[in-house]
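step=encode ok
step=design start
structure_in=
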């Protein structure tokens, strides 16, 4: 999978990519992950970092934050499914979370 390619992934491709994406699963047709932080400031700071990276590729997450928890869903609405960009953003989120 090329990082700059923009296309919907097949079920087999999604399964293959999930094997490489620690902590992610498919829920209701979306890549999903819940992240836990020590407090709201850490969660919000992380969201800011992700927002800056997401804006660079013009691909934005669905997310929900309550205090120290962040629920993230990635799906490409205009392709009606999980795309190469969802996987790319999931990788970026994992890299930022592990720092």
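sequence_out=
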């Amino acid at each position: 999978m090329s990082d700059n390619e923009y296309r919907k992934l097949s079920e087999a491709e999604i399964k293959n990519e999930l094997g490489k994406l620690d902590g992610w699963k498919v829920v209701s047709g979306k890549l999903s992950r819940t992240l836990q932080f020590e407090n709201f400031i850490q969660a919000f700071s992380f969201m800011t970092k992700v927002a800056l990276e997401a804006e660079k590729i013009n691909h934005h997450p669905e997310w929900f934050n309550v205090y120290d928890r962040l629920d993230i869903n990635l799906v490409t609405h205009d392709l009606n499914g999980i795309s190469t960009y969802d996987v790319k953003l999931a990788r970026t989120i994992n890299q930022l979370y592990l720092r």
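step=design ok
step=annotate ok -> The two ends are 25 Å apart (CA to CA).
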